[in-house]
Every structure is written in structure tokens, then in C-alpha cells.
């Protein structure tokens, strides 16, 4: 019985250490590094790529102003702060939307 216990403890410890040191999920779970806030980034770098530009105005989240606004997308090097519509932007970045959805879910 003791040998079985030692075996379980050893493999549990081994799994913990391998998850902690891995690059995947365990690396994120045990990491001290904060994930990047995509909503705080600028929507895109100001370079011009007319072959990739579209007529539709995408939406980005402005953390300082606290809202979602359209911007002129030149078609190059977009960050993740680039949404097709205002609803998607608010669901992804606006904290008041999160709080409202949590309130509705609790009712």
C-alpha cells in the first residue's frame, strides 16, 4: 500500500512540475507574466496597404475614452483591437457590458 501511495505522489508531483515548466496551458496557469490587454492596444499601425484596405469602417476600443469607435483601416498590421461592429467590440472590451451580462445571468 505504501508503494502505491509513493507512486501516486511521485506522478502527481511530476505532472505539476511539467505543467509549470511547459509553454502551453501550464505555462500560462503558473506564469507571473500578465497577459497582454488587447483592448488597450492601438487598433493598427499607420502604414498604407491599399490592396488590403476595405470600405467598411472597423471598430476599435479606446480605453481612455471608455468606448468603441470607428477608425480608418489602411489595411496593414492590425492588432487584435479591431472589430467588425460595435456590439462585438463592447462584448470583448467594455467592462460595463461584462457587469451587465453578469447581472442578467444572476437573475
Automatic annotation (TrEMBL):
This is Putative bpti/kunitz family of serine protease inhibitor. Keywords: Signal. Pfam families: Kunitz_BPTI. InterPro entries: Kunitz_BPTI (IPR002223), Kunitz_BPTI_sf (IPR036880), Prtase_inh_Kunz-CS (IPR020901). Residues 39-93 form the BPTI/Kunitz inhibitor domain. Gene3D superfamilies: Pancreatic trypsin inhibitor Kunitz domain. One of its GO terms (molecular function) is serine-type endopeptidase inhibitor activity. Residues 1-24 form the signal peptide. CDD domains: Kunitz-type.
Amino acid at each position: 500500500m505504501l508503494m502505491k501511495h509513493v507512486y501516486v505522489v511521485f506522478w502527481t508531483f511530476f505532472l505539476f512540475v511539467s505543467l509549470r515548466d511547459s509553454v502551453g496551458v501550464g505555462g500560462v496557469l503558473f506564469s507571473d507574466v500578465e497577459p497582454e490587454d488587447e483592448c488597450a492596444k492601438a487598433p493598427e499601425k499607420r502604414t498604407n496597404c491599399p490592396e488590403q484596405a476595405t470600405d467598411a469602417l472597423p471598430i476599435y476600443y479606446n480605453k481612455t475614452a471608455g468606448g468603441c469607435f470607428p477608425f480608418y483601416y489602411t489595411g496593414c498590421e492590425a492588432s487584435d483591437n479591431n472589430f467588425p461592429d460595435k456590439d462585438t467590440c463592447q462584448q470583448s472590451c467594455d467592462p460595463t457590458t461584462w457587469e451587465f451580462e453578469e447581472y442578467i445571468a444572476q437573475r
